[in-house]
Design goal:
This protein has 275 residues and is α/β, with parallel strands linked by helices. The protein is built from seven helices and seven strands; from the N terminus they run ααβααβααβββββα.
């Protein structure tokens, strides 16, 4: 059930920047055409680097599909299910340019994540009709880390001066060169805010199947002007991060593994969500 709810988040989080509308809309501040999710391009680049990976991913996904989930027992009738809290670290990669976004933008991005995953966004009623009756609270919350890996106090924002802020998604230089200074991935969600993603995406990450043999590529890459709803981002671009978090939770696109315009439906690998 929780996987179903998360997949609804993946759909709703891009409802304002769907494939069809993105071709017609521009970023309110940069004036550039709206960017898309870079999962498809990133995985294709990864397959070029590691040709054996595709077969390994298929084996992993088959194992996941064949798993039987046993419902948890022991909760009293008046007890609420647990809310899972995920510590987040934002690595703000910058070269003293506009990509060095203020703390407020990062804090706003976390606020929006929590609204969406807890079904507290005011426009939930505008979700596609097929999802109306099954949308729910995913019982997942995000919070900026309070302790760094060494146990020191932190605000969960790690600012790194590097030219790699311009190289994210650049196949020529390695599509993951911007994933630097990673905090332990079993304790934090690592998010990397960058100036540019050279494959034309707003953001990308890899689902779980790709990480077993490549843990160093974990984490989410997101353009600085798609972080939160404050300038230089906007309300229109503020949900791209939630979309990528859905992929980080091992979810495919609800319309299937394609970014091709005109594709209305496809297989997302989840049997309890509508086409």
């Amino acid at each position: 059930m929780k996987r179903q709810l998360l997949n609804i988040i993946l759909a709703v989080s891009f409802s304002s920047t769907s494939i069809d509308s993105a071709a017609q809309q521009v970023h309110p501040f940069s004036g550039e055409p709206l960017k898309h999710c870079g999962l498809t391009e990133a995985t294709e680049e990864l397959y070029k680097q590691y040709p054996h990976l595709k077969a390994e991913v298929e084996v992993f996904e088959n194992q996941q599909n064949n798993q039987t989930v046993t419902p948890k027992t022991g909760l009293q009738t008046n007890q609420l299910p647990p809310v899972y809290k995920i510590p987040v670290v934002f690595h703000v990669l910058h070269n003293y340019g506009p990509e060095n976004i203020p703390d407020a933008n990062v804090q706003d991005a976390v606020r929006i994540l929590n609204e969406l995953f807890r079904k507290q966004n005011s426009d939930i009623s505008q979700a596609a009709f097929a999802f109306q009756g099954i949308a729910g609270d995913a019982e997942v919350e995000f919070e900026l880390a309070k302790l760094d890996p060494n146990g020191n106090c932190t605000n969960g924002i790690d600012r790194v001066v590097t030219y790699k802020t311009y190289k994210a998604g650049d196949g020529q230089n390695g599509s993951n060169v911007s994933k630097i200074n990673m905090w332990p991935r079993d304790k934090y969600l690592n998010i990397y805010s960058v100036n540019n993603i050279n494959n034309g995406a707003a953001g990308y990450t890899y689902p779980l199947a790709y990480l077993a043999a490549n843990p160093s590529i974990d984490g989410i890459i997101i353009r600085y002007d798609y972080v939160g709803a404050l300038s230089p981002s906007s309300a229109l671009t503020s949900r791209s991060l939630a979309h990528e978090v859905g992929h980080w939770f091992n979810l495919a696109h609800t319309w299937g593994n394609t970014n091709q315009p005109g594709i209305l439906c496809g297989d997302d690998g989840v049997t309890d969500t509508p086409v």
